[in-house]
Amino acid sequence: MVAPPLVQIRKALDDSGLQSAIYSSTARLMHKRSSALADPLAGEFQQWREQAHQLKKHTLENLDYYLELFETRLAERGGKVIYARDGGEVANFVIKLCKDKNARLLVKSKSMTTEEIDLREHVEEQQIETVETDLGEWIVQLARERPSHIVAPALHKTRYDVAALFTEKLGVEREDVPEKQTLIARRTLREKFLASDVGMTGANYLVAESGSVVVIENEGNARLCSSVPRIQIAVAGIEKLIPRAADLATFLKVLGRSATGQPLTVYTSFLTGPRREAEIDGPEEFYVVLLDNGRTKLLADRNKRQSLYCIRCGACLNHCPVYRKIGGHNYPWVYSGPIGAIITPQYHGIMQEAWLPYASSLCGACAEVCPVKIDIPQILLDLRAEAVKAKTREGESRLERLGFRLWAWLMSHPRLYEMSSLMRGSVSPDEANGWTSQAPALLNVGPLRSWLSQRDLPPAPAKTFRRLWRERSAGGSGAGGNS
Amino acid sequence: MARDHILHKVRTAIGRSAGQAPAEPPPVMLHVREWPQQERIHLFSAALERLAGKTFVAASPEEARKYAADLIAAGSAVASNAPFLRECGIAGLENVRTGIHDPNELRNVCASAGVGVTSADYALADTGTLVMLASPAEARVVSLLPPVHLAVVPASRLLTGLDELFSILPDPSASTSSMVLITGPSRTADIEQILVRGVHGPGEIHVVLVLGC
Prior knowledge:
The structure holds 2 protein chains of 2 kinds.
Chain A: H1 6-14, H2 16-38, H3 45-61, H4 63-76, E1 80-84, H5 87-100, E2 105-108, H6 112-116, H7 119-124, E3 129-132, H8 135-142, H9 159-170, H10 178-195, E4 198-201, E5 205-207, E6 212-217, H11 221-227, E7 231-237, E8 241-242, H12 248-260, E9 267-271, E10 285-291, H13 295-299, H14 315-318, H15 323-326, H16 337-348, H17 365-369, H18 376-393, H19 398-411, H20 414-424, H21 446-453, H22 465-473
Parallel strand pairs in A: 1-10, 2-3, 2-4, 4-7, 5-8, 7-10
Antiparallel strand pairs in A: 5-6, 6-9
Helix pairs in contact in A: 2-12, 3-12, 16-18
Chain B: H1 2-14, H2 37-50, E1 54-58, H3 61-72, E2 77-79, H4 83-87, E3 96-97, H5 103-112, E4 115-118, E5 122-124, E6 129-133, E7 148-154, E8 158-159, H6 162-168, E9 178-183, E10 187-188, E11 196-197, E12 204-210
Parallel strand pairs in B: 1-12, 2-3, 2-4, 4-7, 5-8, 7-12
Antiparallel strand pairs in B: 5-6, 6-9, 10-11
């Protein structure tokens, strides 16, 4: 079993700059969401969520039908579907296409799916210049990092970090003001757009009945990627399908509000194939790559299949007390927060990431805000159960089992139990309110030691329950009133 | 082959066989509101204003032309080929390039123009949104490359919202390769969640709703 990156996590917790960046950004996003939901126009939000859930459920239960329908309809509009089993197949397709078409510059909008398969790195290796054009994603690319948030990739960076980065990588004068930093990005990236051969986007939705790719964004870079270059490629997971265009009315209404509190994001592009004959501009070639990369594995489990409903709004991250402390980079994969905690172990195998489902207090905030009603806490519990089974199989939990056997033995011997609870009373409180961070020496050993290092013990009561009970049964007055 | 391999795995996972008819999908959920035009105009301007966009209600095409002339002033502009812009006399203003059909030429003109003028196909009242369908009349880049976007729209094209749009346009792909919904100026909040407008698309957006058209 791979252990959690504890040293790295402690470093993040001690980094006050990082803590304030994560805390204030997620707080703003939470506030924006709740204000958007308070608007009377969002009065039917709960019905929309339910409808979005039902639509996703239905589409995945009939996914083969919708995949084939999408493929047929897009072909009728002159577009082409490519299936890819894994990231390697996507990269091979893109690289071969670029070489065949003599394309040297690829501009790209933000896509978690391409992030998942490190597509940019693979394409760059082939001397095809690949530029991220979403501001946050571009910052992350310049810094040679990976995104720390689904919606706001550079959430972990302050404006001063960005200033230093721009000076170092672009040779521009130091500029601390976000407005001016953004202008630097606009100028630099505009040149790239106008010179680009290939535009790559992800897809928020794929509409089966029309063969359309739907891309949602605020900056306009995805529009540029899909309007300026002569070739467009959209890379999307097979779970992105929805049945009909009109279903977007539901999905668009929940996505923007959940992600950034916007009733509608600035740009929604509904793209179907290359430019048509009478139209003035748009790509000449239009490809959609449908990626599996483990998704069919998730699909096979009737309960955990819900994980594929995710529309990547990031609300569960913003509301998660664990994400808000440790940040996105301490999760082992590109998907962080509660959604990352449930999908990563399913993609990579439970024993690879067995600690992840435990990185949660099961407070349920994620499920409460999820716009497609994924029952994340339940899936975390299911994964914990799987992790325990897998560990037992591999004999990893011997110590744990021994511990529980000891516990059971103690609990079934009343005298011994009473003695142990008397011992508990001997611990002296070291805090004003009676709590102690000093665990009894006898307990402070082995695996318990690290567990106790993060936990304070409550003050021992003056009388044990057993004693109270005895006094009560004997008709004493110390046990409180009758009930 | 990847295709067959994936479809096979999907079918195995969900227990379906090739060619099997799908279950009935949940019915489409559209709730079209009934707001009179005045209410729609009010909602539209309020929503766009919240996003720092400007709405001007023109009593006549002539008023729309004046608004456009003032906005463009001494700068340069490019107008789409929409007939309505000609009818308003905007396409004929000085400093306005129009009638371009070559994509490369159009891109170059748009890349240096100060204002892009379009006539949206629809507008959505509750969100302050413009609906742009690519066509011989409307290219994609006019509303995208210049730093200012001016849309001159007959007030009759103002719908209540998304639900009405999809009820009259259940399949946008039937008529265009590209439908884009534009809701306010281009924006980002990628640096410290601080709002900055005009990152890639236009940072300024003006909508003229022309009454009686």
